[in-house]
Amino acid sequence: MKMFNEKQVWFVTGSQHLYGPQVLHSVANDSEEIVQGLNTAEGISVAVANKGTVKTPDEILAVCRAANNDPNCVGLMLWMHTFSPAKMWIAGLTQLNKPFLHLHTQFNAALPWDEIDMDFMNLNQSAHGCREFGFIGSRLNIERKVVVGHWQNPQVHQDIDDWCRAAIGVQAGQALKVARFGDNMRQVAVTEGNKVSAQIQFGYEVHGYGLGELSESVNAVADGDVNHLLDEYTTTYDMSAELLNNPEQKKLLVQEARLELGMESFLTSVGAGAFTNTFENLTGLTNLPGLATQRLMAKGFGYGGEGDWKTAAMTHIMKVMGQGKAGGTSFMEDYTYNFGATDQVLGAHMLEVCPSIAAAKPKLQIHRHTIGCNCDIPRLIFSGQQGEALNVSIIDLGERFRMIVNLVDTVTPTQSLPRLPVAHALWEPQPNLSTAAAAWIHAGGAHHTVYSQAVTLAMLTDYAEMLGIELVVIDNSTQLRQFKQELRNNSVFYRLN
């Protein structure tokens, strides 16, 4: 079973009747062997379904329409085994509403030098058959991914999987509902945005729910379920026995467990895979959820603080895209800097950082929270695992959405942080803090981000291209002057496009 269960990528082979039944028989056999090879490849996480060889415009149109109507089909992988005249593809491609990957490969790897004849040449025409197909994609101005290499090559498998995960992310966004408890933090600009435009662009719905509705769900949680969850806390996290032995502290844990169960129940009941809240709107709740939010994120729910629904949605989408990969994904915020020999960023939030990014077993502790509510709140405390990571921000520029990605290198703090009562990650932005921060600010990136060590830049590039949104990348090759010019060029392109 592949990582994404019933989801599939449809493999469609292009040919024509010109070469006769014997060639088409070989085309079908070769295609089936390739599909079997891709399905047994460890590096590909989505099942590949062989949808046969298309030889006429009607067959192409039929398979494209069928893909459109199959909810388990996340996209198509198209390969031209022989020459497939591209005018045959116009009707199908213009009606296809799912992404496609153009696999530019051939069945054999090495040439059989002593055996090549015209029969071999007529059968193995991918080198120029795919060029014919490539033209029509460009003529129709269709965004697609082109993967080049032999189908048994692990790098080809990686490229295919990146695209598959991006397609899964697009589909996850189209099925997503974001629940907002309370409004956006007052006077904050970047967390606002046009929800209708977002639904048109990304597919997800954003709905507001009253805190009274949520508090009813929280208050309805059974005591037995709370006790069961407390037992889970003790076995999952590093926590002092005093937390359960001290009546006042146990009361706080009970409140947090009730919040977790109540929120999960409510989100499930309305079909929401992501949520937001804000410390300014807590009427009916005991406190701003801390541990509860962290654990819900660990279960796959997206989250955005202070009403940030765009980041909440992207957190869920990236969690889906990174499913099964090493590393985690979390809501995050660039909180404060460490200027030194190598400038660094300490990322954190008031309470809500997902334990999927933890370097070690999280500690469950209770500390005072003083923003929006002055009370003690349970939370998980940990440092993020060292290694490559990235930060992602989606912003609404009015006429379009922009995705900003900064590649970072997460490091282990050289000193302990004994008085910092929140989970955190310390990273060094690429190419350096001065360039990265300036580029981020010029691009309008938000202070909230999605931080991930599971999702790659390649996945996000494919995701942005599938949706037709602007993508700007800050990495080791970034130079500020060229980056600013890229922003200007993009502005012109998207206004004209």
Automatic annotation (TrEMBL):
Residues 328-470 form the L-arabinose isomerase C-terminal domain. It catalyses: beta-L-arabinopyranose = L-ribulose. Keywords: Arabinose catabolism, Carbohydrate metabolism, Isomerase, Manganese, Metal-binding. Its cofactor is Mn(2+). Its EC number is 5.3.1.4. Pathway: Carbohydrate degradation; L-arabinose degradation via L-ribulose; D-xylulose 5-phosphate from L-arabinose (bacterial route): step 1/3. Binds 1 Mn(2+) ion per subunit. Mn(2+) binds at residues 306, 333, 349, 448. Gene3D superfamilies: 3.40.50.10940. Residues 8-172 form the L-arabinose isomerase N-terminal domain. InterPro entries: Ara_Isoase_C, AraA_central, AraA_N, AraA_N_sf, Fuc/Ara_isomerase_C, Fucose_isomerase_N/cen_sf, Lara_isomerase. It holds the Pfam family Arabinose_Iso_C. Residues 177-324 form the L-arabinose isomerase central domain. GO terms for molecular function: L-arabinose isomerase activity. Belongs to the arabinose isomerase family. Catalyzes the conversion of L-arabinose to L-ribulose. This is L-arabinose isomerase. The gene is araA.
